[in-house]
Amino acid sequence: MMNLNETLPICIAGQWRLGGGERYATLYPATGEPVAYLHAASVADVEEAIAGADHAFRTSGWAQKNPHERAAVLYRVAQLIRERGEALAQMQRLDNGKPISETRNLVASAAGTFQFFAAACETLEETLTPMRGDNLTMSVYEPMGVVAAITPWNSPIASEAQKMAPALAAGNAVVVKPAEVTPLAALELARICIEAGVPAGMISVLPGKGSVIGDAITLHPLVKRVSFTGGTTTGKHIAHIAADKMMPVSLELGGKSPTMVFEDADLDHAVAGVLYGIFSSSGESCIAGSRLFVARALYDGFMERLAAGAAALRVGDPADERTQMGPLITARHREGIERYVDIGVTDGGRIRTGGVRPKGEKFERGYYYTPTIIEGLSNDQRICQEEIFGPVLVAMPFDDEDDLIRQANDSVYALAAGIWTRDYKRAWRIGRAVQAGNVWINTYKQFSISTPFGGWRDSGLGREKGRLGILQYMEQKAMYWGMNEQPLPWAG
Ligand code: NDP
After folding, report:
1. 219 and 87, same structural domain?
2. Which terminus of the chain is more exposed, N or C, with fewer CB under 10 A?
3. Ligand 1 centroid, distance to 296 Cα (angstroms)
4. CA 148 to ligand 1 centroid distance, Å
5. 293 and 195: one domain?
6. Does any domain span residue 402?
7. Is the predicted pLDDT of residue 492 greater than 70, yes or no?
């Protein structure tokens, strides 16, 4: 593991050295204290990393290995992540302030992702297609070359694994641009990959400002694909660059996901599910269930229970195993959330619970905020439409299914949705009618690496995970082998 007491080197095509950009500190969101110092990558570092990656791709032999050989290395990556799981989870906690119970899950997910894509790599089939004429026809896959992974700060190790594992499994070199404020997990994952046997030049990790480093990577002609997770504005910017380069991209973007509670729901489950859906990860989650619709007949009683549950959540020290909600990522992000709460109130919303920073000595230095529920707004108002990315839930009653579906789908986003009902026919009807990339029925925020994930509309393009996730990092090629004893007619 890295020594956090030293200024950290970054990884430039397998070379570990100080970045050429400005020195900065990453901060522990629970206290505001420095966790590690490093120099950001410079644009010259980006150039060197991509040239080195391209060289490694052409010369290291990684892409030419048999799939089971690449898989064996990636299985070792999974094993090393598990062996160092606790240290990685603690490092991730310091990096972004999530409770330790959550960062342990993220580390387990990262290991599982490498294991899954190792399996996908060694079981990937290429197709012999039906013949039409005297050609043997087949569809095969090739690695792309240098691919880029750009990740946000909210679930670093899992986001990075989700891109690095399939990219490497497919035989590519990968250049990772982690969020400036959370670079540690990506740096450590790079070390683990190299230790496990990925040729060093195949991996770069370039922390730094997205507007500088991210653009330099995305615009680079040798970068053949970008897999991006982050905000919709940045995603659209990357999509424009990709259009100019004719480069494939996948974009996992924001959300404003509706959760719908019907009269016949199991209320114990629904209350717990709604709380978990919005307030876990302090609401800093693309799939946060941030818009709540409750059947009118149920509304008052349900909101009473929900508000009491939110007020009782254990907000505090991320190192405490019992903590349910840690701090927000930065002081600036908390200010942004506070501005949204003010907008909600100015627009006529009532704060049902929360809406303030928690009081007490243990909260003074960290970027904490209380779980917040706002009522009295309609779905077309600003805080019901814009992604807040924090622990703020807007709650509204609904009258009937048509009214509900109209409101649930009235959003530029379409990433996720939650349905709480005991009526399986209704669950099916609503589940099919709601526009979202991911629908949870009587549960929320559950994931499986085998199930493709992504959003519609402003929530993104493309899918990650699933067996076919590896194909996003490959080019498809049709091959025709002439089997005819005769030459083509033009031969004279
Ligand atoms: P950003 O889009 O600001 O940042 C995401 C990453 O992109 C960071 O590494 C950032 O660098 C980088 N970046 C910024 N500008 C550029 C650029 N011009 N070119 C290339 N890269 C750039 O998002 P946030 O940090 O605000 O992350 C939160 C967002 O991510 C939310 O909207 C959330 O919904 C979304 N998200 C989506 C998920 C999904 O799977 N759909 C999962 C998790 C989050 P820097 O560090 O400098 O900001």
Report:
1. yes
2. C
3. 37
4. 14
5. no
6. yes
7. no
- Which of the following is catalytic: 180, 188, 252, 464? 252
Q: Is residue 492 part of a domain?
A: no
Provide the 3-class DSSP secondary structure of residue 190. Answer: helix
> What digits encode the pLDDT tens for the residues 145-200?
999 999 999 999 999 999 999 999 999 999 999 999 999 999 999 999 999 999 99
240 and 352 share a domain? no
Query: H or E element: which one contains 45?
Result: helix 43-59
Q: Catalytic annotation on 252? A: yes
Distance separating alpha carbons of residues 434 and 430, to the nearest angstrom: 6
Q: Which domain holds residue 38?
A: 7-253+459-478
Residue 214 near ligand 1, beta carbon < 6 Å: yes
- Rounded to the nearest whole angstrom, what is the distance from the C-alpha of residue 181 to the centroid of ligand 1? 11
Q: So what's the pLDDT on residue 489?
A: 85
Cα three-residue angle 217-185-86, rounded to 5 degrees = 165
The answer on 358 and 372 residing in a single domain is: yes
Q: Is the CB of 230 under 6 A from ligand 1?
A: yes
For residue 442, give every residue at least 6 positions away whose Cβ sits within 8 Å of its Cβ, in sequence order, or none. 265, 266, 269, 273, 419, 420, 421, 427
Q: Tell me how many domains the chain contains.
A: 2
Residue 106 CB–ligand 1 contact under 6 Å? no
Min mean pLDDT across 319-328, 424-433, 478-487 is at 478-487
